[in-house]
Amino acid sequence: MTEPRLKTEIRVAAHLRRVAAAGAFAHVARKGDPDAGAVAVKVFMGPGAARLFVQSRSEEGAVIWREAFETPQPEDRIDAFLEKERRIDPDLWIVEIEDREGRSFLE
Q1: DSSP codes, the chain
Q2: Phi then psi dihedrals of residue 34, to 5 deg
Q3: How far is CA 65 from the centre of its chain?
Q4: What does DSSP say about strands 39-46 and 25-30: parallel, antiparallel, or unpaired?
Q5: By C-alpha distance, which of 76, 19, 32, 18 is closest to 52?
Q6: Domain boundaries, the chain
Q7: Model confidence over 78-89: pLDDT tens digits?
C-alpha cells in the first residue's frame, strides 16, 4: 500500500515560499502536470555557473533529488539538458532559482 502523495503544484508552491523566505529569488520557468509531474530545479549562481537537480524516486517510492552534473555547468548546457528532458517528459516542471551560494532549498 502506498502513502498519499502531495500534488506537484503544491510541492512547487511550497518550494517557492521556502526560497523566498531565505531571501533568494525563484520562479516557475515551465509548468508541467499539476498532479504528478516531475520537477527539475536549476540554480543560477552567476555568469557561467549553474547547478541542476532532478527529481527521482527511491526503490521505496520516496521522492529523492540528485544533482545532474558533478560540478556547476554553463547555463546553456543545463538548458540543453532540460530541453531534452522536456521532450521526453512533457509533464516536467522547471523551477529556476537565483542564488550566488548555489543553494537548491530542496528537502
Answers
A1: -PPP---HHHHHHHHHHHHHHTT-EEEEEE---TTT--EEEEEEEETTEEEEEEEEE-TTS-EEEEESSSS-B-HHHHHHHHHHHHHH-TT-EEEEEE-TT------
A2: -65, -20
A3: 9
A4: unpaired
A5: 76
A6: 8-98
A7: 999 999 999 999
pLDDT of residue 1: 44
Amino acid, single-letter form, for residue 2: T
96 near 26, Cβ under 8 Å? yes
Q: Report pLDDT digits (tens) over 39-69.
A: 999 999 998 899 999 988 888 888 789 999 9
What is the Cα–Cα distance from 20 to 99, expressed in whole angstroms?
Answer: 11
pTM value is 0.89
Q: Are strands 93-98 and 39-46 parallel, antiparallel or unpaired?
A: parallel
Kindly state the cell numbers that stand for 25. 529569488
Class of domain 8-98: alpha beta
User: Can you say how many angstroms the Cα of residue 30 is from the centroid of all Cα atoms in its chain?
Assistant: 10
